[in-house]
Write a structure and sequence with these properties.
mainly alpha; Vps55/LEPROT; transmembrane helix; 127 residues; membrane; flat; 5 helices; 0% strand; transmembrane
Length: 127
């Protein structure tokens, strides 16, 4: 069971991630890296929606489920886009390289916090 210390630690890491992304925008007066926050906040949603929409049969164990695979694909696509977008902006000269590094690190911290939160506070299903 996750307790109060886990919530405090996850919120601290999430605050550091947001701080890095905001500083990557504010220090160099380029606000395009804020798009990383949107991609990392939206990234877990396809996985969550598709796992709820999947047909879970208690009696048959299905090895492949297209809906769940599609949700995982879209989540992976959004995570990769959150990393690739600042790299693309830095390559095109729209943002500086330090802003890119801070944005990628902050985005990865945000997404890792979201994943850790879902892992620690996942409800176990009993039949």
């Amino acid at each position: 069971m996750a307790g109060l210390k886990t919530i405090i630690a996850l919120s601290f890491v999430l605050a550091i991630g947001f701080l890095l992304v905001i500083l990557s925008c504010a220090l160099w007066h380029q606000y395009l890296p804020l798009l990383v926050v949107a991609t990392y906040v939206v990234a877990p949603l396809p996985n969550w929606v598709c796992s709820r929409a999947a047909n879970n049969d208690d009696f048959m164990e299905s090895s492949s489920n297209g809906v769940v695979d599609f949700g995982r694909f879209m989540t992976g696509f959004l995570v990769v886009m959150g990393i690739a977008l600042p790299v693309l902006f830095a390559h095109c000269g729209l943002i500086t390289a330090p802003a890119m590094v801070m944005s990628v690190l902050g985005g990865l911290l945000i997404y890792a916090t979201i994943i850790s939160f879902t892992m620690f506070f996942q409800e176990e299903q009993d039949f």
